[in-house]
Amino acid sequence: MAAAGVDDSAVIATNDDAASCKRFAVQQGYWKDPYIQHLVRPGERKAPEINRGYYARTQGVGQLLDQFLQLTNCQCQVVSLGAGFETTYWRLKDEGLLPRGYFEVDFPAVTSRKCHYIRSRPPLSKPLTEGGGQLQIEGGTLHCSNYHILSGDLRNTEELNASLTTAGIDKSLPTLFVTECVLVYLTPDQSSKLVRWAADNFPTAMFVNYEQVNMKDKFGQVMVENLKTRHCHLAGVDLCADAESQKQRFLSVGWEGGDLLDMWTVYHSLPQQDVQRIERLEFLDEVELLQQLLQHYCITWAWKDPTGLGLSNLGFGRPSPLM
Ligand SMILES: C[S@@+](CC[C@H](N)C(=O)[O-])C[C@H]1O[C@@H](n2cnc3c(N)ncnc32)[C@H](O)[C@@H]1O
Predict the structure, then answer these.
(1) Would the pLDDT of 125 be above 80?
(2) What is its EC number (predicted)?
(3) Which ligand 1 atom sits nearest the alpha carbon of residue 155?
């Protein structure tokens, strides 16, 4: 697949930032992830608001993912687009929740580094070969029983389709697409094309998207300006204008239904005993700042469920279907 252009370097660098923030939060005890330390060096100290934001993000996205896996009894696939250095595959393996296929796609500059770390660090590679599985790594591509890392450009859906097909994706299986802070880097046309491709090709599917929302207000505009000074252009920010634009992104291209919560609401919908635990980890000076920050991010989820699996029942604040 095509290599990233020079203009993509700032977008590629956002992965280092996300991985480093996740590592710091893990180090502080926000959640457990014994794998992230093997993918990124320790970074600078992050503010408590940032750590709580990452906590809400990983727990929120993780909750929808786990509900999907439980509902389908793991007879499903997960496709993480713009996966960066996510460690979800290892977590699911440790928790006995692996789907039939787990696929990740990112630019070659990102996947080749991830593959290199996996190849050279046994805590990452060992779990992949347990049970005698063969680990095949070539450049930025990895195949290993049910785990596939593919390099590609999400703006090219034809090539994305071809590389997932070659890797053995089964379009008849229920499939969950995850994009965590990714679609905002594509123009509205590019992300619509991607989201439409997913709807057109996978009859039973769910899409979970985490990113900015309410970006038209003052706080949102300041966020955009701050990122610009770091040469990071949010090409898709128009679709992050409000809840309606986020939802319509899916409903206008073939998704049957969709829902959305801002991260402040997600934060309050997470298991409150754990939220109380993390709130004791670090003193937070300005709750208003955390609230403003979290109200400018959201999780949107959309579904297509022609056989009535119950995908529309997944979400927050409701008991998960098999519990
Ligand atoms: C902010 S990082 C998030 C990484 C990961 N999803 C996480 O939450 O830790 C955004 C990721 O999207 C990837 N990305 C953005 N645009 C892409 C494109 N057109 N094709 C492939 N990957 C892309 C970047 O390379 C980067 O790894």
Answers:
(1) yes
(2) 2.1.1.233
(3) 19
- Using CA atoms of 16, 18, 20, 21 in order, give the dihedral in degrees to the nearest 10: 160
The Cα 319–Cα 143 span in angstroms is 35
| Phi (first) and psi of residue 285, to 5 degrees | -75, -50
* Whether the Cβ atoms of residue 114 and residue 149 lie closer than 8 Å to each other: yes
Average of pLDDT values for 112-120?
98
Write out the two tokens for 65: 């993912």
Distance, CA of 311 to CA of 60 (rounded, Å): 16
How much is the pLDDT for 216? 95
Question: Largest Cα–Cα distance of the chain, in whole Å?
Answer: 55
6-306: CATH homologous superfamily?
Vaccinia Virus protein VP39 (3.40.50.150)
Average pLDDT over residues 95-116: 98
Q: Would you state the structure tokens that stand for residue 22, as one six-digit string?
A: 């996740």
Neighbouring residues of 60: CB distance < 8 A, sequence distance ≥ 6: 210, 263, 266, 267, 270, 299, 316
Closest CA to 238 of 261, 221, 218, 257: 221
**Pocket-testing residue among 1, 15, 22, 177, ligand 1, by greatest number of atoms within 8 A of Cβ:** 15
* Predicted confidence band of residue 169 (pLDDT cuts 50, 70, 90): very high
Rounded to an integer, what distance in angstroms lies between the CA atom of residue 297 and that of residue 58? 13
The token pair that represents 169 in the structure block: 């994706």
Q: Do the beta carbons of residue 118 and residue 108 sit within 8 Å?
A: no
The verdict on the CB of residue 14 being under 6 Å from ligand 1 is yes
